[in-house]
Amino acid sequence: MNYKIKINGTTKEVDVAPGTPLLWVIRDSLDLTGTKFGCGVASCGACTVHVDGSPVRSCQTFIEDVSDQEIITIEGIDGKVAHEVQKAWQELDVVQCGYCQSGQIMSAIGLLSETPKPTDENIDDYMSGNACRCATYQRIRAAIHLASKNLEG
Fold first, then answer.
1. Taking each helix axis from N to C terminus, what angle separates 137-152 and 101-114, rounded to the nearest 10 degrees?
2. What CATH number should be reported for the domain holding residue 126?
């Protein structure tokens, strides 16, 4: 079945079966491989993208549910919050293996867009659905605080 989706500012047409997870459309049909497959059950966060500005798990979001919405992947993320998050990630050398980081970054952008000055508890609660096998959680938290601070100034 043909679906038109708006992704990273461009309308694309994809021919996939109803019930196809958005993750597979992004990776296999559109060849945008920054969004990762982790668990397939929406509990690790590696597949996080923004749909109408909110972070969602693309492995459990179906193509027919997003046809009228704006989808942004790690490749298309832009804006002041995104820039400061990415800059903080680099400055604090957050990444170890890097596999989960696109999902971590997409979630961090969502958090700072909703809560510009998060506490440690805010960060831990919001980011709790993002797993990092390398356990860089302290660096992730520090980078979110740094991005928040830089957004103030």
1. 40
2. 1.10.150.120
